[in-house]
Amino acid sequence: MSYWKDLEKIVIENEFSKGDLTEGSRNYIQCADGSVAAYAYAGDDSDGRRQLQIYDASSGDDIPIAFVYVTPGVDMLQGLFVTGVIPTKDIFDPECRFLRVDYNVLIG
């Protein structure tokens, strides 16, 4: 299921800190609906594209749910949660910002 429903109704609230992008280190995000998402840098593929592993950590256990490619300007969590993270540049660029986006159309 994806929370990408109506792009006119999303709200960019603020920024996340980058967190630890060391391969395998997990970063946790408290989503707008109370769920917890986690992501970990999973290395680059043979073409140099950045990859993340996405987890659902809502239960207290990190349950792997997807491997995704990271693209500047695209939700790193791929719409799998009601809150997303949009990198403005390559995730290792010192000027990259991680924007928080809440898909409010489905909340409350």
> What is the typical, i.e. mean, pLDDT?
85
**How many helical stretches?**
0
Shape: globular
> Strand-and-helix sequence, N→C?
EEEEEEE
Main β-sheet description:
4 strands, antiparallel
Across the major sheet, the strand order is 2-3-4-5
Strand content: 35-45%
Distance between the termini: 18 Å
Amount of helix: under 10%
| Poorly predicted tracts of residues | none
Q: What would you report as the Rg, rounded to the nearest angstrom?
A: 13 Å
The total of beta strands comes to 7
Q: Could you say how many structural domains there are in total?
A: 1
Keywords:
three-stranded antiparallel β-sheet; 108 residues; globular; four-stranded antiparallel β-sheet; 41% strand; 0% helix; mainly beta
Question: In words, what does this structure look like?
Answer:
With about 110 residues, the chain is an all-beta fold. It has one domain (about 10-105). It is about 0% helix and about 40% strand. The chain has no helices and seven strands. The protein has strands spanning about 10-15, 25-30, 35-45, 50-55, 65-70, 85, 100. Strands 2-3-4-5 form a four-stranded antiparallel β-sheet, with no helix packed on it. It has a three-stranded antiparallel β-sheet with strand order 1-7-6, with no helix packed on it. It is globular. The mean pLDDT is about 85.
